[in-house]
Write a structure and sequence with these properties.
Number of helices: 8
Shape: elongated
Distance between the termini: 73 Å
Largest sheet: none
Structural class: mainly alpha
Helix content: over 70%
Length: 190
Amino acid sequence: MALTGVLTGFRRLLDLLDENPTRADEAYQALRLRLIRLFEWRHAHSPEDLADETLYRVAKRLGKGLEIEGEDPLPYACGVAFRVFKEAVREKAKHQRVITQISAEHRPAETDLFQEQRLSCLDRCLEGLSLENRKTILDYYHGEKSARIASRRELASHLGTTPGALRVRSLRLREKIEACVASCLEKKTE
């Protein structure tokens, strides 16, 4: 029953395009090509499939009795194409999220031994800093997002510097610590 409605819709679409069956077929192919170009212009993944889906939906609606204003199916088809494109973008984003999640779940986890070595190296590198620098870097990265901002302002004020200068100082300390940890890990794996 649904197939009959779609076939009826395709016949109505062809009749709207042209009364002459040969010219109607040519007009249909031209409409399909315009839709393909529209999807290509929007960098859609599969323009031909999306154009076919658009025309299928138009025919299905025509089969259910839709009346198109002005008897020109192009504006209506473009509106349907826009919705089909938005659905395809949402589907692609959903697909990408699933792939990212699956790949994250199957990524090999660090071994407990490696994590222990990293923490040991980090402790050793922090101990190598002056007491003031160690306190600064630990206070700089302490806290949650919104609380961290207020904490950093307070820390900058306490140190008698600006938040920007504190950011630069903390970045340099962090780079020094990261280099120290990397060097320490290299020594442990040799």
